[in-house]
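Section 3.1: Structural characterization of target chains.
Under the original work plan, the team committed to producing a structural model for every single-chain target entering the pipeline before any wet-lab resources were allocated. The record below documents one such target. The sequence was received from the expression subgroup and is listed exactly as submitted; it comprises 107 residues.
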Amino acid sequence: MTTTNHLQERLDQLFPDRVQYDCSLKMLTSFKIGGNAFALVTVHSVDELQKVLQFVREYDVRWEIIGKGSNLLISDAGYKGVIILLDGDFKAITSQQAAEDETRVIV
């Protein structure tokens, strides 16, 4: 059985300075409500997202992904898992001319 300490050590190895434990989630939502999460991991790239998803699958840890937290309700009881917060590259919005009458927007 994997202990909480082992999970924390492994997350700290993967994401130094980007993991918060027993972290309040209410400041991440537009409604400003919600309890604490076991861990909040901030990812800045697709590679980092892949790493954290591999971690949660390997250790069978519950997880959710959030962006800006608009219209998101989180229980006051909190979340017994890993919250993945998208930042960095995930904030970009670009557009490409796909065809003469078509524009592709990537968010």
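The chain has two helices and six strands.
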